[in-house]
Amino acid sequence: MASGRVPRLEDVARLAGVHPSTASRSLSQEQSGRIGAKTRERVLAAARELGYTPDLTAASLRTGRTMTIGVVIPDFSNPIWASLLAGLGETLQERDYTPVIIETKDDRRRFDRALEILTDRRVDGMINAAVRLTDKKRLTAFVARTPTVLAGRDLPGLDVPKVLVDDVRGGELAVSHLVQRGHRSIVQICGPGSVGPFKSRAEGAQAVVERSGDSVALHSHVVDQPTVDEADRVMSAALAAGPAFTSVFAHNDLMAIGALQAIRRAGMRCPDDVSVVGYNDNPLSQHLAPSLTTISLPFVQTGRTAADTLLSKLLHNDPPVVTTLQPSLIVRDSTAAAR
Amino acid sequence: MASGRVPRLEDVARLAGVHPSTASRSLSQEQSGRIGAKTRERVLAAARELGYTPDLTAASLRTGRTMTIGVVIPDFSNPIWASLLAGLGETLQERDYTPVIIETKDDRRRFDRALEILTDRRVDGMINAAVRLTDKKRLTAFVARTPTVLAGRDLPGLDVPKVLVDDVRGGELAVSHLVQRGHRSIVQICGPGSVGPFKSRAEGAQAVVERSGDSVALHSHVVDQPTVDEADRVMSAALAAGPAFTSVFAHNDLMAIGALQAIRRAGMRCPDDVSVVGYNDNPLSQHLAPSLTTISLPFVQTGRTAADTLLSKLLHNDPPVVTTLQPSLIVRDSTAAAR
DNA sequence: CTGTTAGCGCCTTCAG
DNA sequence: CTGAAGGCGCTAACAG
């Protein structure tokens, strides 16, 4: 019943009547130039007949390359990382690299474990989208051994290629949109400060306020987890304390949804009473009621560029480059002029 | 600068003053019983000092096991698969297996490519949550070589362990909920029939209607892609044709969102004018306005059980088992009594 | 309990 | 252009 042994190179060689090394060369992309066309054809035919496909893991022992790339992300359940994976997966697959994807849940132990697993598997490189500002030490050792690209989250002082988004600018876009619509009192719901992009968004927000010369008040709240429920809690408290504000900048769309929920529960309306700006432009955000004004980030391109950058390091040993992509404001129905 | 060579077993052995194979045994879980406590301690110390960690891919050549499990899912961007991945990832990691995750986008070529990649990598097993009813042929060959578990989607006639959800029951739950609330005209938005669970949901819906003895009308529309936009399109058309219906059963939450959107745009209200039931209980569905009545599926448990089932095959060669988990109805605000 | 030996499947020198 | 030989790092048999 079981289809018997998996064929090896030797089986192909025997069937084609050549030496295994000749078979190997015939099947490899690089070396196949040095092989007679007829021999090569015979070998390919034999391989096809047996259903032979080379054992990549065995080959890696000899070549020193596993053709795997570690990919570390915070969370499968956030669709923004799905876009990143789509971008980089496509690019890696074109070069026959397979991503080994691990999620950290922004948990320190899981992050460490991820690096261990990637080390044990001898991945040829890593794309890391889950670094926190507190991870420098443990990353440094890894990075010394394995080519690494940071994607989406920076770790200042780590000298590796990076593909980043200008989150300071993103924070500016969000808050200046509100200011331009006449809002003078803004509540900001910040994600954890250990995550670089959240820190940058807050900086951008602050910069706008400062440029406005004290005419705008920014009330910032930091949550431990950037979730719907946490934002709901913060927003409810803010509303209960007396809504001296007319707008909200949430550091991601999930938190914006939490804010919307709290606003609704308090019997107020968005955007009539309170305007809300999110961040990330999650796929569903445009389908909410009201549809969410938010900051869109080029995640697919981030993934693609991160993969390109890593491959250029791996294949041509190119020097580290930092690419910075730009966010953009998407105006929808959750923001209106201040009342 | 670069931390030099990656240490090998030989380096550890030399530092500990033992033979490499002794070092190997000391580091392995299984064999370490047959080693003197002191020797073992010396080896572990040496390994720690050098930062040694075994090359899993080299070891696999000898052991014949790669300690990798292929995981095939339709789509990273759908959070239900994230839950599946969470469940199975946890379980696999406990046994030192690493998942190699590939998405198919429910595209035939990508599905084939996924199987090729997993074959080349010599994964020890596969958990496949992306089979379509049309995939039997190409799966059969793979399954003969590699232990496989089907998760969430069945392929009748394929004799492998399966962890399924009773989607017929799910369809029944959804539609009988509507019937009990007095709805006698229901629009059903069906996902592609090549995907087993969609077919089953439609069967369940039909069964309820038949049991009602022709007192309920079910108008079914099949879409190519189970997306927000497709459902919006179908729903808009249905509304334009004259809303002789009072309720909608969408085969997943995304399509329910599309339906809600179309209803809103047509100037009608949910649940006042039209009730809507979704399927899957996406994380965001409870935060929509109105919050979505839907069918909840145990995805985390599906993942966990699939991993357990596969491991029991791998480790104890247990015979194929089919586990069927039950869906449950979550009543929220998108459904009300028929007007 | 530990050392010796061999070889997993493949690719890559080196010869011819 | 093809064959011969060696070895990547590790672990499993076999001795002792």
TrEMBL record, chains A, B:
Q: Name one GO molecular function term.
A: DNA binding
- Tagged with keyword DNA-binding: yes
Keyword list, A-Z? DNA-binding, Transcription, Transcription regulation
Against InterPro entries, the record matches this protein to: HTH_LacI (IPR000843), LacI/GalR-like_sensor (IPR046335), Lambda_DNA-bd_dom_sf (IPR010982), Peripla_BP_I (IPR028082)
**What is the name of the protein in this document?**
LacI family DNA-binding transcriptional regulator
Q: Where does the record place the HTH lacI-type domain?
A: 7-63
Among SMART domains, the record links this protein to: HTH_LACI
